[in-house]
Amino acid sequence: MLVRLASETDLAGFRQEARALLARGVPPSEVVWAAESGQDDLFAEDVPAPAGEPRAAAVTVSVPAAFLELCNTVVLHIDPQRFALLYRLLWRLAREPGLRHDPLDADMLQARQLAQSVRRDIHKMHAFVRFRTVADDDPSGEPLHVAWFEPEHHIVEANAPWFKRRFANMRWAILTPRRCVAWDRRELHFLPGAGRDAAPPPDAGEQLWLTYYQSIFNPARLKLRMMQQEMPRKYWRNLPEAQLIAPLAAQAQERSGRMLEAPATIPLKRIPLFAAVPQAPAGPGLPALNEAMQACRACPLGATATQAVPGEGPLQPGLMFVGEQPGDQEDLRGRPFVGPAGQLLDRAFTQAGIARQEIFVTNAVRHFSFELRGKRRIHKTPQQQEADACRHWLEHEIAQVQPRALVALGATAARALLGRAVPVLKERGTWHARGDGLQVLVTLHPSALLRMPSEQLPAAFDAFVGDLRRAAAGPAPVAG
Ligand code: URA
Asked: Which domains are assigned to the chain?
């Protein structure tokens, strides 16, 4: 008996047909399963009812939830025999009560292996999709991000919601040979497969990404074998950074030698400990404010940092960007966002069309919070009391600078600006009003990008740039 399913991943159809076949007692050896591969053809014909009497006793089968979970994943496998395997298992589950507890059963083992291979493919798609920006004529003016990917299995539809959640604010399309998916910021659209030539060529952002990849590559941490396990060679041809791996690996030993020889960073000066918390000056002027904050000891951070780091930029800017706290470089130089996170932020500004000299950049916390590891000062997230103690400096700064809108980089800044704990991943890319009417756009902190596995970085960087573009476009005018 030939049973045709509407599509390669038609689990609902499979369940319905399998239930009917089991009820009629049709043994697995008499069923041939065929899935439509023309993804847009809707399955038209019903399975014809079998002639004659059932050949085995009809049974209904109730299966454990874990088996349904397994079916969900196995149907995504490329193996044409997957439906036959699942039907055989259903048939046997109804007749062999011990089967569900037999860890060594060959059919069960095979199903688990198929599921494992699908899960690995799903994970690789999360990690190795690389978007390129395409300018189209969309009325929103937002660029379209297009990626080419070659999954092993039928995972595009199952994986689409993950990309939708992750890149909710971007317009994007992922092209694959068997199925394509596009997100227009409202709904997902599934389309037939595409050819590789439909994918856009390398763009300017990609060169930026390559330069960036080169600059964050840490030779002391290179583990080539692990890297190849995580990033198998078959994915390399679609990964722009793969071309850098061999040359960077070749220089790794020499570069890590140089890193070991370089002196550790040492604070330039210590500020004597004051007990008093200075008042922010009532009069105008950032210089007075900045001078006053140097003496702040409202929390312990001021005693160990080199200096308080004030914000910088023009007065009455379109945007004021608020980070978490100065890092090692910022603490030494007394300027915000001049270290690695600042460099990444500058790249994102450039790509989003934001001129740094036209915006104000500052931090929620004024002193560097760190712990010592040997001679190195390692960033430590400031405690809530420390951020609270610093909040009045930020508010005075906002009052002096008078930005048209604010951007919170990360959770500490978002909390300082909005006065509540903000789930950044959920609320990123959107505007939130403060009590004083100022609007705040929330996005990730650039250091969060620096901490990401390198394979996730390009897409995350694109999404970050998307948030900055939204910030640059400004909040929607308030009605009335
Ligand atoms: N991280 C921040 O939040 N601010 C800086 O100034 C530097 C790194």
From this structure: 2-124 (no CATH), 129-198 (no CATH), 214-254 (no CATH), 286-473 (3.40.470.10)
